[in-house]
Design goal:
By secondary structure, the chain is mostly helical. Helices cover 68% and strands 3% of the residues.
Length: 591
Amino acid sequence: METQSLIYLFVGLSFALYIAIAIWSRAGSTAEFYVAGGGVNPVVNGMATAADWMSAASFISMAGLIAFLGYDGSVYLMGWTGGYVLLALLLAPYLRKFGEFTVPDFIGTRYYSKAARVVAVICLIFISFTYIAGQMRGVGIVFSRFLDVPILWGVVIGMGIVFIYAVLGGMKGITYTQVAQYCVLIFAYMVPAFFISFMLTGNPIPPLGLGSEVNDGSGMYVLQKLDMVLTDLGFAAYTDGSKSTIDVFCITMALMVGTAGLPHVIVRFFTVPKASDARKSAGWALLFIALLYVTAGPVGAFARLNFTETVNEQAYSEAPAWFTNWEANDLIAWRDKNDDGVMQYRPGDAFEGAPVFSEVGQGASGERLLENPATANDNEVYVDRDIMVLANPEIANLPGWVIALVAAGGLAAALSTAAGLLLVISSGVSHDLLKKTFRPDISEKGELLAARVAATAAIVVAGYLGVYPPGWVAQVVAFAFGLAAASLFPAIFMGIFSMRMNKEGAIAGMVSGLAFTFLYIAYFKLWEPAANVEANWLLGISPEGIGVVGMVINFAVAIGVASFTKAPPADIRKLVDNIRVPRGAEKPHMH
């Protein structure tokens, strides 16, 4: 079978599986819609958590980031993995013992205030939409390349699929769909990695391959060769970092703490029978996540080496098929600056902005003509970082079924996270805003309907953000983490570990942390992007890492305000004491 038919087959089968699972596990009650009835096995929940966790950013963008940032890209690996450990040890078991449905539920009850709950819902919706924009963008890229449709239609198809199983099945449908998606995405990530590692080094295990000699007879190790190839072309060595220590620390910390405050991952721990199961499923999830994360570094390095060697100094007329495939989707472009018909890959931007192809004619070598003004450097090749993982099997000439597998895997990664986020948005609106705040007398049936309507509205907004995205995938996601770090994490943390923290302190802290972080990011990314250089940053901290400062402000304001206002009532202090007792936490209380 030809590659394109295989892609249709693999993607079609995986979608049929997800929809069948959604129909089989349709939610009948709000408990099933929000937390899958609270009876999910820890190993199953670990797999579902891993799928929820590994978004389009992990699957599609992360290795691409590492491929082009080299050593500096490791902050994403450290931050995202470390944050998961923080979440599993510090927050998950306690929140599970508390036994509510959502993060604003915890904050509203713990801080005995409707205002705190509403602030938490606003933070949560803000974070979730920022994050979901990245997922939908990933879905659009995969569809447009592999199913030959424009990115707009790719996003629309993705919205339709998520709509079916998130709105029908709720958390119950999503949990079992995510198990299937984890199996698809991990298989799709590992198979090409094994192949490419074996082809380059003779060692099929990617992390070991990264430390092996390249089997081209040069006797050089992979990273040595990569450093040499890149420095010869004028790039910085792959293994050198350019970020300052404080910025590396802050970005890693913001990703870690932001991870621990991510609402759609925390909710996963409410779906197991008891608090000890929350710890077990956290351990399983870490194992399932680590499989992909220890492979991402090697995949990034192999991709950069293969890309550079197949593109640089290659005549365009003899360019490999994958180059023209991705060019057709506007994600790779070539600008022949010296009219020699040969592609030169060097540092710097090949032209200004993202490629805009003109409708008229072709260049002397048959290339698509660009409308973008050229830049003054020697680089002629534009490549979108988000395609590296998806293009990797094609660059390495792997068989068609591997390419089809990667397409299905990229979709599984993006759709599983998007579904988890939609659920968080819809439960925030229906459960926290309606049931617990503005319409306490709403029936269970009415609440379930409201949740489905909210999920539908959220899908439409998410789709719009996917078609007109603010920035590229992993960067958008980094903001979501910064905002979570600055707003929700301190309130949850002090809610568990501080008896003295009261509603005034928590609300003041969340508002000040979120406002500071949002304004800082918006200033450098939206209003004055030209000013986004190290000299202008506060303490040398980039917008990606500023969530840490927001978090410190949140803690400081909260503790300050709490010390001047009256202590929480006795029943709340008793609740906090009870959350931290490890025993007697078998059944969630519903009220």
